[in-house]
Amino acid sequence: MRISKSVSLLAASALVLASCGGGGSNNNGGGPVATPTPTPTTGSNPFPAPSQESLTTNEVGQILAQAVAEAQARNLPSIITVVDRVGNVLAVFEMNGANPTALVSRERIGADLPAPDTFGLQGVDVPARLASISKAITGAYLSSGGNAFTSRTASQIVQEHFPPAPTTVGLESGPLFGVQFSQLPCSDLSARFGEGLIGPKRAPLGLAADPGGIPLYKNGVVVGGIGVMGDGDYGFDANILDVENDAEEAIAIAGAQGFMAPTDIRANRIFVDGTALRFTDVSPDPGGSGGSFAAINGTAGNLLEVPGYYDGTGLNPGVAYGTAASGLRAATPAEFPLTGAFILDDGNGNPRFPIRGGTDAASVAQPLTEAEVRAIMEEAFTVLSRARAQIRRPLDSRMQASISVVDTHGEILGIVRSADGPLFGIDVSLQKARTATFFSNPVAGAQLLAAGNDVAAYVARVRTFLDDPAALTGTHAFADRSGGNLSRPYFPDGEVGRPPGPLSVQDSDTFSPFMVGLQTDLVAGNIVQHVGFTEGSGGDTARGCTGVPASPSGQPRIANGIQIFPGSVPIYRNGVLVGGIGVSGDGIDQDDMVSFLGLHNASVRLGNGVGNADPAIRADRIEVNVGGAIVRLRYVNCPFAPFLDDPAQNVCQGL
Fold this sequence. Notes:
It is a single chain. This protein has helices at 57-73, 128-141, 151-156, 247-255, 293-296, 370-386, 424-440, 444-449, 453-465, 480-485, 518-521, 524-534, 588-606, and strands at 79-84, 89-95, 101-104, 125-127, 213-218, 221-229, 233-234, 271-272, 275-276, 301-303, 328-330, 341-344, 402-406, 412-418, 568-573, 576-584, 610-611, 623-626, 629-632. By secondary structure, the protein is α+β, with helices and mostly antiparallel strands. It has a seven-stranded antiparallel beta sheet. Strands 5-6-1-2-10 form a five-stranded antiparallel beta sheet. α1 (57-73) runs antiparallel to α4. It is globular and about 70 Å long. This is Heme-binding protein.
């Protein structure tokens, strides 16, 4: 296997909408406008839990048989994976003659590089079975009861221009730019097969942008995903204006028959900045069926072991999301008092991340207390419960997302979520909280300098770009929106001909979703090691991403990688950094608002100096000279009229 030193994670994300920003469609068809969800009353539940549905082994076999029949009809032997909603691999089936490897697409920069060269993951051969797993997880994790996204949807929202097309050059980057580098195999949050932990599992190549990952639904409830890898090209769709007849996508859709998402929540019914998202390019409801699993097992192919994911000994049933066995369940009032909250379970009925005070007394004179963390999370959840969704159907649904709080060491002080938020938002909310805290930390520059030459070089770039030799020493508060500004291949974002941000690749012509800059370089070694492990070459990557040194608490401060799209702010106590809060799941502006306004409301409730950064040190005070034009970084951007129960506008202004 050819593997590059700077391997980067699969794009894709899709996380999709969990973080999409921009405006939704109010009434494009001219029909009746949906009635807003009523304001919660005392004792009511703003986030009813989805019904507990799961795939049976017979249904997993049916899905595989249907997909195999379509693959045979198209003469494309493939590797087909089925997962449940929390990422448990239920089956991996390798058809006879299936290509065992996939080349990470060279489409974006293929004309610029000789054939043997690689750039990040681009041009690298990866095991096709890993690609099929990442596609299946992408479909499952990006979807919910209010939105159904595919790996094609993910492709649309992670590229350098949105929507991606030759005619859209000059527009800003995709709303979930960077989400492909979540659910990483080195994440300290994601559970691992065979290690006893339950809950959301890791994706071997992160989230995928290659078509062929489709969510699966049962009685209108998302229960998993199917991923297909067969054509040998693991890429993305660089031109949303054409319509592809993608065989892998057709095979996945055939497999999903009987388990397709409800029509009204598919991505093509959801708009971002006036652009409809893409669900599939192939007809989403082809006819035909594929017989039984018994008829194909051992004849058309065989179940395939994947170390670290699946033992290959038989079909597994899915677990029902919301049960203790899924690792995600409703919180008790003692665990979190607000109605509709879900938490992660350790498998024994206990909260996996109970709310607690800061662990960073070695670095902070007065760490966050448990009561302060609880107040921050409760106030953020309250804002969440009032907010209008960006990417959910029907229109004027209530926002759903995940919320994470960390201390200055990146240690998790609490995670809570609404019942039906997309699963990808759990890992991403934690990435966001840690990223804002890390870049606002006085030790950020020193930590990056100690992480090796590939990473250390970014420190000098930032200081030169900002004309500030003290940058990354705690002099400014960086939200994820601020760091995202510095991570785009054009600065300002999307403006072709402008210089790249200092945390991006330094030649915008070589940008690829598979190599974006610092975000990739921080985790490249972990990804290379994990891919080798799945092929029997050495041990697995450690639980804890990045090469930055461990904090006094023992783990890297960014132990599941960084994130570079909005939805987080650092937390201060009387001007001293004490932690960070991150939100992900339902629109980047909404994510910004829940973190920023939730923290502000907690500061009013607490009245003890804990709250948002002083405006004087926020990153939006930083000015950059770009060709004679002065450009300011951004801090947060809240939706204009965000609430279902209040006509208030500009709710973050002046705070």
